[in-house]
Design the sequence.
């Protein structure tokens, strides 16, 4: 039976060389130690669906910033159909703060921990499983638990939410610098689709772009909808994540164009 693999790094193959390259020794580039990016299947679907919703399909001038916010979180800047920057790098541990992952931290802190008694396996567990919202709050890395506690003024839950929003805003700002313009800001995956406070506070920092939410729409969180106020210069959308559908579409496209003539068995 034909089998197809759909890699979520593929969407980021259009990254400019400067965006994909780490400022380490050139040997890293030669060995493939570059920024691959992840969540590409989600970004590909959400960017196309958002363009459809606002009526700008096949518009190579459309600039979008996509926020995939779930258990793992990353952002992408997309110009037309080409990804020009993203927050994850060589692994999905890089970028903004997540539910249990730290996101980007000072490499010097890693060196310090390794030199002062933290072994490699423990460090991997800390960065991947005991950091982010979970690590700061001391709770399971679930926004349905942490965010209500933050509203009740639980100090650690408040800090976890504040750090999450701060890193999200910083990520959007860096994507804006790479895209040079912003027509649409898109939220997808479970946190992006269901947490009005994340969208509201994430957007607040970009009022200087004349970006304004419709408060009632934001609170109701309707899927596949433009949440921006009518006079907003930037559209703000929720796009329901459909990664399985995107994988099916890409597999079908590959199957349709593939030569699947059976190879005769050797005798």
Sequence:
């Amino acid at each position: 039976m034909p089998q197809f693999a759909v890699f979520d790094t593929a969407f980021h193959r259009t990254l400019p060389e400067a965006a994909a390259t780490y400022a380490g020794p050139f040997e890293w580039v030669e060995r493939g130690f570059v920024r691959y990016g992840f969540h590409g299947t989600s970004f590909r679907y959400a960017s196309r669906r958002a363009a459809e919703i606002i009526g700008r399909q096949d518009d190579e001038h459309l600039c979008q910033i996509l926020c995939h916010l779930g258990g793992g979180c990353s952002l992408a800047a997309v110009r037309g159909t080409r990804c020009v920057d993203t927050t994850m790098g060589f692994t999905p541990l890089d970028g903004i703060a997540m539910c249990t992952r730290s996101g980007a931290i000072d490499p010097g802190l890693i060196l310090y921990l390794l030199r002062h008694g933290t072994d490699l396996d423990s460090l991997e567990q800390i960065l991947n499983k005991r950091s982010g919202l979970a690590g700061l709050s001391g709770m399971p890395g679930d926004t349905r638990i942490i965010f209500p506690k933050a509203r009740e003024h639980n100090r650690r839950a408040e800090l976890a939410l504040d750090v999450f929003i701060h890193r999200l805003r910083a990520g959007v700002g860096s994507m804006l610098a790479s895209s040079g313009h912003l027509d649409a800001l898109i939220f997808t995956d479970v946190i992006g689709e269901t947490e009005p406070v994340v969208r509201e506070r994430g957007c607040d920092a970009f009022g200087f772009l004349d970006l304004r939410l419709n408060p009632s729409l934001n609170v109701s969180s309707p899927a596949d909808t433009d949440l921006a106020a009518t006079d907003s210069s930037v559209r703000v959308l929720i796009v329901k994540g459909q990664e399985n559908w995107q994988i099916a579409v890409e597999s079908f496209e590959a199957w349709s164009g593939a030569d699947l003539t059976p190879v005769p068995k050797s005798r």
